[in-house]
From TrEMBL:
SMART domains: HDc. Pfam families: HD. The lineage of its organism: Bacteria, Pseudomonadati, Pseudomonadota, Gammaproteobacteria, Orbales. Coiled coil: none annotated. This is HD domain-containing protein.
Length: 223
């Protein structure tokens, strides 16, 4: 049960946003589909219950919309941003709220924070935690291999070492799936913003560690 309330107008906007996002991500095959969005929203709702100073409407809207302008998913980002602004205007989202949403979804991604950490509002920190939590645990493992296959990356090559210096430009260059655990996923636990995010991440992190250890042992022929 939630500890926050939305106005009837805000609830109507969120319902329209669900439809908008479902349509935009209907054909995604990279692990950033609407099922991912639903999980992020549910995680954001869980964290919201522990962060009373946050704005539930901004959090939920940003959680729903965080991938509709992402270069991993969208070919024409400029057009996607224009369409999103039109959608928000058509649904009478106040300009101040629109700016808050864009401030979050334009700055929360892992790649955007590689070279310098972006300053996010508490609302943005909640959404960032929720999104990163879906990259951890059993589902995180599944999504990592799903995305790796989508990008035609090989699973593993022990002769290719994980990169220790990443930029927004080289982050998505071809690499092995297992290296992605070392270059990003293993680091997320210590990047969580909220106490609830840290709590959930700690449990999901261990699932990743156990999996990669088993994977590498099996690769080397160890029982």
């Amino acid at each position: 049960m939630s500890n926050y309330q939305l106005s009837s107008k805000q609830q109507q906007i969120i319902e329209q946003t669900q439809k908008f996002v479902t349509e935009k991500l209907a054909h995604d095959t990279s692990g950033h589909d609407f099922a991912h969005i639903q999980r992020v929203v549910n995680l954001a709702r869980q964290i919201l219950n522990t962060e009373p100073a946050s704005d539930p409407f901004i959090v939920l809207m940003s959680a729903y919309l965080h991938d509709v302008i992402d270069t991993k998913v969208i070919a024409d980002v400029i057009q996607a941003k224009a369409e999103l602004r039109d959608f928000l205007a058509d649904n009478q989202v106040p300009l101040t709220d629109t700016q808050k949403i864009f401030d979050i979804i334009e700055n929360m991604s892992y790649s955007k924070n590689l070279e310098s950490k972006k300053v996010l509002s508490l609302d943005g920190q909640i959404v960032q935690d929720a999104d990163r939590l879906d990259a951890l645990g059993a589902i995180g493992i599944g999504r990592t291999f799903y995305y790796g296959g989508h990008k035609k990356n090989i699973m593993y090559n022990p002769d290719i070492a994980p990169r220790t210096s990443l930029t927004e430009q080289n982050y998505r260059q071809e690499n092995t799936v297992i290296n992605h655990f070392y270059e990003k996923l293993f680091l997320l636990k210590d990047m969580m913003n909220t106490e609830e995010g840290k709590r959930i991440a700690s449990k999901r992190h261990q699932i990743l560690v156990d999996f990669v250890q088993a994977f590498e042992n099996e690769w080397r022929g160890k029982i």
